[in-house]
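Expect chain and fold; thus:
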Amino acid sequence: MAENDGQERTEDATPRRRQQAREKGQVPRSRELASVAVLVIGAVALMWFGEGLGEADGSHAKTLHPYPGRDF
């Protein structure tokens, strides 16, 4: 009944209740955790692949260059 009335709990959950929640997969997760994971994975990917992107000679861009006689 206390779950549905919208009031805050006055006491902490018992260890048995916490164990039951874990078994059901009801564990607290932060939204920031997912954001941090994406940022860390992106940074690692840039460290691994960024050097190759920076060292590329741009030969693939020469075919798409609108002004072949001019260098920018």
Notes: Residues 31-55 form the longest helix (25 residues).
